[in-house]
Amino acid sequence: MSYVSSYFHCVFSTKERRPHIRREIRDRLWPYLGGIAKQNNMMPVEIGGVEDHVHLLLSLPATMPVAKAMQLVKGGSSKWIHETFPDQRAFAWQEKYGAFSVSASQVNTVRRYIENQETHHRKLSFQDEFVALLEKHEVDYNAQYLWK
Q1: By 3-state DSSP, what share of the chain in percent is helix, strand and coil, each rounded to 5?
Q2: Each residue of 22-48: pLDDT tens digit?
Q3: Most buried residue among 5, 63, 86, 106 by CB atoms closer than 10 A?
Q4: pTM of this prediction?
Q5: Per-residue pLDDT tens for 1-15?
Q6: 12 sits in which H/E element
Q7: How far apart are alpha carbons 59 and 81 in whole angstroms?
Q8: Helix (H) or strand (E) holding 28
Q9: How far apart are CA 72 and CA 120, in angstroms?
């Protein structure tokens, strides 16, 4: 048997960062995202966000690439939103996402960060937050293509 610790802080926004995730959607969407994760052998540690984006702290099984995890979570939740909220026909997730590895020693710090998204975003835009995460994790990016 193999023993693997594989935590990822995943961040993605609505298409064009539109504020589609209203409170009544959010209250149902976060548990739904957790359900998708569990059905696919991922462990959802924390889920949160605001009107225009989502943060997930996931523990992935050793055999699952983060790209597959994002495909399952984003695809399944988009379909569910369209079926459950008929007024959300225009809803879509942005194609891109960020995924940042998290050491076990930092899980609680990231969990608290995700729990405090509403307070956090009173002062900081999603765009500024995302760039800060890229820089903190030393991810190479081209600002020209970041929001397309």
Answers
A1: 50, 20, 30
A2: 999 999 999 999 999 999 999 999 999
A3: 106
A4: 0.93
A5: 788 899 999 999 999
A6: strand 7-13
A7: 24
A8: helix 23-39
A9: 27
